[in-house]
Amino acid sequence: MNKIVKMVLVLSITGAVSGGILAQVFHFADPLIQENRKKELREAIFVVLSEAKDYTTLEKGNDKEKIVVYKGIDADGKLVGIAFIADGGGFQGNIRIMVGLSTDYLKLKGIKVLEQNETPGLGNRIKEPAFEDQFRGLEIKPKVEYIKYRKPEKPNQIQAITGATISSEAVVKNINNAVERVLKNFPQEEILK
Amino acid sequence: MEVILIFISASIVNNFVLSYFLGICPFVGVSNKTESALNMGLATTFVMTLTAAITWPVWTYVLVNFNIPFLQYVAFIIVIAALVQFVEMFIRKSSPHLYRALGIYLPLITTNCAVLGLALFMVLREYNYIESIFFGFGTGVGFTLAILMMSGIREELEFADVPEVFKGISITLIVAGMMALAFMGFAGLIRG
Amino acid sequence: MANNNYNLWHEFKKGLWQELPPFRLILGMCPTLAVTNSVINGVAMGLATSFVLLSANISVSLIRKIVPSQVRIATYVVVIALYVTVADLFLAAMFPPISKALGPYVPLIVVNCIILGRAEGFAQKNPLTPSIMDALGIGLGFTLSLALMGGIREIFGFGSILDIKLLGEWFEPWIVMILPAGAFFVFGFLVALTNYLSKRKAAAPSGH
């Protein structure tokens, strides 16, 4: 009997003390972690909208299907474009891309790959500037396309990475999906307003 | 459809052992005989499926609901340890034969990082309940597949003339590397 | 006193060769394989693990007399999970890029067999000071092993060490080194190498 009491006591005290310490540490660390996340997002937005100095966040939809866009604003308070995240499957895992769109809703201003698990040396070259830069000024109508082994011929084409067609295709497809969703949910008049 | 993709992805394409290095300890430790490898694989699959089934509600309804996500690791490891203990007791009572076959492996499952790993990945990837269970089951099947194949190879290796210093763990790891390369061929099987 | 000092030194030193965690004890293999695609990741993982190991050894050594033996594993696991969460939160708050690179492998320190193994096998039976020395030795051995693995894979896989290009343009990176398969190969060869060295050491007439 005595033993069982002791067992329960020791376990509960260990649990309570651990919980207490963790609550304290979390209280201290959580604001910093949130701050880091915000900074990361901010930097990504400023990469794809290079003139932007600040941004505001717009949200639509319910908890289940939330669409978020960021309006990039330059030093004079003028709208320079909108940014949003394209999330979707790649060759091996998820690919997350920050996409910048011009205010005329016709061209991409730039992209930045935030997260990817593609094959090192092949698919993961999607995060290299040589690939990302192809999207700067790319036309989105009728939609973004990729082309293999040759230089792009049309203003809405990029050249796929040799040996990583599937990863390149995934990037293009994810961007198209995200652009379509944003265009549907955030009409141009609404953004310019 | 989605759940089948998750199942195939967890068991073959993104095999926990060969591409995330989870569950290496039992993979190396219990893969010298096909029979024990199969038993270990089945016991682990069982615990993994249950782990997914229990940690999901614990995460969603307790940890998120009460806003105490920082207790995630403590809570998950307690759930897993308790689960393994419970399964051990249950099997001992219900089937002494099965207990003799699995008994010594059960405690090892608690420290199998693939079990905790699957609970963490499940949360990170925001699976729903049904998806989580398929993910847990698929991970277990993938683990069984890997350990079973390895045990088959190791039984043959016993007759091979391996240099003295490479015997045992060393050659097992090098063979595992070759298996990992072979499994890379499955990548791209699922196009998002 | 002199004898005591020697013992403490021994507790520390054994982690560096005799009980070198990944290669000799074959423990803690998951992180050794998973996060060693570069030196910096390896070192960060090694330090995080050492922190948990040291804290867990201290705590277990202090409470070893009051914990009933039936619940000792459960208690130790909770204590370890506590320190792992602290390490994880600390990395996420202070070093976000490292936290991102290590990802879910930080929480997986909870089930790293080295830590429970040391708590159960050493700290539980020994007073505070030897437990600290033991944790420091094993932790350092583990960190150095991860750094070595990371170094080998980084130089062959990227041609660099700590992101500094060492090999010129002529060098075609061995992509296999960064892939999971490369981790298995390097680990396998290092285990063979330690086997070879320890055999030679044993064969040589022991001087001391």
Largest interface by Cβ-Cβ < 8 Å? B-C, 43 and 41 residues
Q: For the residues shown, what is the average pLDDT of chain B?
A: 85
**Order of SSEs of chain B:** HHHHHHHHHH
Question: Could you describe the largest sheet of chain A, including whether it forms a barrel?
Answer: 5 strands, antiparallel
Cα radius of gyration of chain A in angstroms: 23 Å
Beta strand count of chain A: 7
Give unreliable regions of chain B as ranges: none
Task: Report the portion of residues of chain B in β strands.
Answer: under 5%
| Helix percentage of chain B | over 70%
Overall tally of structural domains of chain B: 1
Q: For the CA atoms, what is the radius of gyration of chain B?
A: 17 Å
Taking all residues together, what is the mean pLDDT of chain A? 85
- Distance between the first and last residues' Cα of chain A: 74 Å
SS-derived structural category of chain B:
mainly alpha
Report on the structure:
The complex is a heterotrimer of chains A (193), B (192) and C (208). Chain A has 193 residues and is α+β, with helices and mostly antiparallel strands. In chain A, 40% of the residues lie in helices and 24% in strands. In chain A, the strands form two sheets. In chain A, strands 1-2-3-4-5 form a five-stranded antiparallel β-sheet, with helices on both faces. Chain B has one domain. Chain B is globular. With 192 residues, chain B is mainly α. With 208 residues, chain C is mostly helical. Chain C has one domain. The mean pLDDT of chain C is 83. Chains A and B meet through helix 1 of A and loops of B.
